[in-house]
Amino acid sequence: MDRPPTHNFPHASDEFAVAQPPDGYDGPESAYTLAYADQPFLLRRELRSVRVQLELLKPELLLQDHGVSATLVLFGSARIPDAATAQARLDEALASGSDSAAIARARQGLEMSAYYEQARQLAAIATQAGSRWPNKLYVVTGGGPGIMEAGNRGAHESGGESIGLNIVLPHEQRPNPYITPQLCFQFHYFALRKMHFLMRSVALVCFPGGFGTLDELFEALTLMQTGKCTRRPILLFGESFWRKVLNFDHLVETGMINAEDLSLFHFVETAQQAWDWLINDYRLEELLSAPPAPTDV
Fold it and tell me: Averaged over 250-276, what is the pLDDT?
């Protein structure tokens, strides 16, 4: 007797292969195409809830397949270059006789490039150390240039894999060349992208940035402050930058937040300082020596 099949019903991919429209029903006006293979149908406004579900499920299932359950999230400005690029921009501004404002911006860019190197170093340290733990640690970034590139680059240069969660934008966003291809995703919905940043995170490291960085930072702070997300360390790189941008003490003084809310984040200045804090104060190695935590939402 023939062995029974693993599943009683045909796989969708098998049906798709034999369900091509016959002559007379293969035009754009035909409704014959299978629903899950009909792109115009899936892109209808009424199908938004289905597309939201797909953006949650695709990364979730592929990351599960890859065994990813613990991530170190690095985020910050897409506009912070590496030191060599920043120096070249300054040299060009000086050589071309640019106005003083342009030269000042180029000098500032060179100064800010130090954060690129710190992100690169931290990603390398985390990838090397995290690869030896029972619950492997992966670096995850927004997948674009600047600080995101530095994070994926550090992981890549240390011989490890890393994740990129890209978003469709009219500018500044295309995958940097250091993301592991199997772990490079693209999102339409910001909300789903931010959910995937947090779902497996064991710590978040925030470098200087603009509106996007502030959005991601305050999303995480709010979810942790309100108890909607497990409290994880949030390390802010560059105390002088953050204290100029945000007056945390004033928020306490005016009663907008509680004094204990300041414990939601911790300032650091170097990659080694950040890693030492995670290992010694947060006891990260002990955490990742335990069985992987579920990512149910």
Answer: 97
